Amino acid sequence: MSTSQKFWRWRRNPLKRATDRAEAWAVLISGLLLVVGSPLAGVATGMSVAASDPRLPADWHSVSAVLTRKAPAPALADEVSHSDRVRATVEWRTADGSRHRGLAWVMPNTPAGRSVTVWLDGTDRIREDPSRGLQVRALAFGTVAATGTAALATAGFVLVHVRLARRREWQLDREWRDIGPKWRPHRT
User: Fold this and answer.
1) Tell me: the pLDDT tens digits for 34-67?
2) 5, 67, 75, 147: which has the fewest C-beta neighbours closer than 10 Å?
3) Are 71 and 88 in contact (CB under 8 A)?
4) Is the dihedral of CA 54, 60, 63, 69 positive or negative?
5) Residue 8's Cα: distance from chain center in Å?
6) 92 close to 145: Cβ distance less than 8 angstroms
7) How far, in Å, CA of 173 to CA of 171, rounded?
8) Are 85 and 109 in contact (CB under 8 A)?
């Protein structure tokens, strides 16, 4: 005969105490928060951060540029913020038709002649893509929100469990004070 049964917290039992029912609900709620609430909180937070428009300076704009040479292979000691990209020379035309060259961050080993999008400021200098930082922030905030929700669910369950265990001990002590003297051996 097996002593472990599935869903034992939810079965009817005349010996089940109110603390047992409270603990069953705490397990259910914290489990739902961990499995459903944490991912939802992370995704919702990440999407709300990503949906916020970056405040670009008024004179920034994007243009299509062409790689003049094949982009190099990734170096091991790249800057941390650009670890998945390399710098390569690109060429673009401004609104007045003049040609410009500059270094832009592109994917490694991109072939020469490939078109890439670069961001320019009012003086036609290449700037960092404003959406890249936004994506990283959205991922970071979403991860923090999911982790925080999971931590709160776990801490809440632990707190409820400890309080219920103390209550059970208190109830057992009270009952033992009432019943214990009746179990003493009788002297004749």
Assistant:
1) 999 999 999 999 999 888 766 767 777 788 888 8
2) 5
3) yes
4) negative
5) 33
6) no
7) 5
8) no
